[in-house]
Amino acid sequence: MRCPYDPKPLLGLPMGMLHCPLCGEMIVAGMEHPEYGLLDEEREIMGRVMDRALENKFEQLAERALTEARKIKCDLQDYAEGLLVMINTIQEEYTATCEELSSEG
Ligand SMILES: [Zn+2]
């Protein structure tokens, strides 16, 4: 019997080579599953293992995405604060220069 797990929908996910959550054979995300036999009994057990493994994988991915999003938010805040400081400095310099010029004139 052929392993029913299809790694093709994983195309584009940052997984690369992984063990098939159903049969344990090495598979590549997005590629055809290599031929590999499974007993009905094994299939049932591995089905449950697969559900669990996918659940964990998606939790990991979601957590990583959240961490990245928080980091990007912090970076943007730092960047915006930096810009404000820069704008204030330019405004102060501009005002000072204007005053200098008008007192000279
Ligand atoms: Zn498999």
Description:
The protein is mainly α and 105 residues long. The chain has one domain (8-104). The chain is 62% helix and 6% strand. The chain has one helix and two strands. The chain has one helix at residues 40-104, and strands at 17-19, 26-28. It has a two-stranded antiparallel sheet with strand order 1-2. A hairpin with a 6-residue loop joins strand 1 (17-19) and strand 2. The mean pLDDT is 86. The structure holds zinc ion.
Concise summary:
With 105 residues, the protein is mainly α.
Q: Secondary-structure map with pairings?
A:
Elements: E1 17-19, E2 26-28, H1 40-104
Antiparallel strand pairs: 1-2
The structure holds zinc ion.
Strand content: 5-15%
Q: List the uncertain runs.
A: none
Mean pLDDT: 86
Helicity level:
55-70%
> What's the gyration radius in Å?
29 Å
The domain tally reads 1
Q: Output the structural class.
A: mainly alpha
Tally the helices: what do you get? Answer: 1
Order of helices and strands: EEH
Strand order of the largest sheet: 1-2
What is the overall shape? rod-shaped
Features:
two-stranded antiparallel ribbon, 1 helix, 105 residues, mainly alpha, single chain, binds zinc ion
